[in-house]
Amino acid sequence: MDEFEALALAAAAHKRRQSTPSQRNEDGTYGQPPEGMFVNPGTGQMTSREMIESNTNSSVGGTVARGIGAGVTFGLDDEAQALGAFVRGGPELGKFRLEQARAQQDVDAEQHPVASTGGKIAGALVPAAGSAPLAVGKSLFGSVGRGALIGGLEGAAHGAGGGEGLDGRVNGAAWGGTVGGAVGGVAPAAIATIKNTLNPAIAAFTRKPSEAKVRRGLVDALQQSGRSADDVAAEVAEAGLEGQGEFRLMDALREAGQRRASGLVRAGGDGGAELAEFLEKRQLGQPERVAGFIDDAFGMGGETAQARAAALTAARGQAADAAYDAARSNAAPVDVRSALRVIDDRIGGMQGSGVTGDGIDAKLVRYRSRLAAPESKLPEGEIARELSDFDRVLGVKQAVQDDIGAAVRTGRNNEARELGKLVAALDEALEGASEGYRAANDSFRNASQVIGAVDEGAQMARPRQRAADTIARFQSMTPEQQSAARVGYGDTLLARLEAANAPTSNRAKALQSPKVEAESGAMSVDPGLLSRRIDRENAMWGVQNRALGGSRTADNLADIEATERTTSGLVGALVDLGNLNAGTAGQKAIGAIGSLVRGENNATRQALARALMSADPQAVLSPAVRKQFQSNVRDGLVAALMRQPVRESFTP
């Protein structure tokens, strides 16, 4: 019936009612229809659902189609038809269309009950399929909870849609929600029971790995790590590019990977042995890896601090020889009077006193005799005779520097200080005689400061040095001095790491102290690279330490259990059964086949171990995640199939 037809029928009925005064009340309204009766807008006469049913037929195809519509709309298809009629023709047409739709449902259910129920179930699978991916949680408990929630919501919607009146809808929603929630919670548990026993058991008895068990183990570990498969794959790939090809999938999963690796090693078998061997060999290579990272981070180039200082000293000597040779070629006479005054200020008061001076005085007297002739040896009429040859004055200065070095090495600091005054005066005199000497001197001084930076860097690495002070000193250095200081710093770190010679000790841990982290961040060539490398080394050590380190109690218990399985497994069960020891026989039999029923066979553990050791997580995780999603959708659809017929049977 289209809109124009409905309006025409409504107008005709209204005209007929106006022509029948006996149906009109005194106030102009019409009387209420008898209970269960309503107006047929097409005829203007009273009718009922039973009267409509008596004139309604049903076919199998129509029944299935209407059942599907009811299932898709949670039983609200009749209300949808009534609402459309109400909008087109008013309340009478809306009421009639609602009763007509429900009469058709009653006829369908009576004449073709299987087609009606089947159609509703098929239709209900449409929204259930949409919710299928959401019905599977991270654990069986989570899946049960989600299934109960979704089943309860679906049941409540169907119960409310199938009820009549407010009370009927409320009661229907309550009953439908209860039944749907119960079935929805039981369905995932039933599916998991079948999957976790039948499929793994088949794989176990055929001695093949359970692909589902391996996949679920990987996906569970990935979910527990809180990371995506792409993130894990990117980190492992980056590690390979940055010289840590030993960094694998289990390491990128952090604690979740540690737990999986530990469980596999403790379980033993080929997979546990293979994984343990890999972890042991990898840990033995950690000292070399960490040493290489320090070498790279501090630009050492394979040199020790001593070797770098020696190389810098040799380079300084070669540069100085060339520079001082150039300074000699155009040198003027040297005026050493300022140097003589420095000597006389120290020893002048002692001359002629008859008192013997100290060792410093003796050295200064000797140097004065090399710079100027004594008055007693001057020819008559000559006032003074002083050394002015550039090469000879330079030789005196170098001799004084040698004495200063010897004094420093033996702790004669006062002597070194006094002789330093003479060196400064001689330098000033030499610079006045040659412009090239000043440049050579500056170059020598700068080179000496670079050499000294090697030792200064080594001092920075010592625990008693505060990071705030060492970083400030480092940042005040020239680039050349910083490069030398890095070598001294890195060499001291390496010496400290080499002192920790236990095979299973974590060489990278010491590099994560607050002091070393702060200094490395300011001093290393590439702080980000060093930080990532050290973090990965700690992650790798964490896996091997959890799997192989700590107390051996778990290993001992595993060995005992393995021995008992060998001596008292199925054979022991048969012996006990022969001795009429049925209880013990059953217990031993269950223990012997328990791991097989759970799919925990050697092949499955080995497959999971190799997956965790993979250097290409994308190839391992992507198929696992995709297949697990597909499995979740299938489980959700199966659970939906299990919910529908039960709910249809128990929902009023």
Secondary structure: elements and pairs:
Layout: H1 3-18, E1 37-39, E2 46-48, H2 49-54, H3 60-72, H4 77-89, H5 91-111, H6 113-131, H7 140-162, H8 165-195, H9 198-205, H10 211-225, H11 229-241, H12 249-252, H13 255-267, H14 269-284, H15 286-297, H16 305-329, H17 337-347, H18 359-371, H19 390-409, H20 413-433, H21 435-460, H22 467-475, H23 479-499, H24 514-523, H25 527-548, H26 553-568, H27 570-578, H28 582-597, H29 602-612, H30 617-650
Helix pairs in contact: 3-6, 4-5, 5-6, 6-30, 7-8, 8-30, 10-13, 10-29, 10-30, 11-30, 13-14, 13-25, 13-29, 14-25, 14-29, 15-23, 15-25, 16-21, 16-23, 17-18, 17-20, 19-20, 20-21, 21-23, 22-24, 24-25, 27-28
Structure explained in plain terms:
- There is one protein chain.
- The protein is mainly α and 652 residues long.
- Helix content is 75%, strand content 1%.
- It has 30 helices and two strands.
- It has helices at residues 3-18, 49-54, 60-72, 77-89, 91-111, 113-131, 140-162, 165-195, 198-205, 211-225, 229-241, 249-252, 255-267, 269-284, 286-297, 305-329, 337-347, 359-371, 390-409, 413-433, 435-460, 467-475, 479-499, 514-523, 527-548, 553-568, 570-578, 582-597, 602-612, 617-650; strands spanning 37-39, 46-48.
- A two-stranded antiparallel ribbon has the order 1-2.
- The radius of gyration is 48 Å and the shape is elongated.
- The two termini are 31 Å apart.
Keywords:
652 residues, mainly alpha
Quick structural overview:
By secondary structure, this protein is mainly α. It is built from 30 helices and 2 strands.
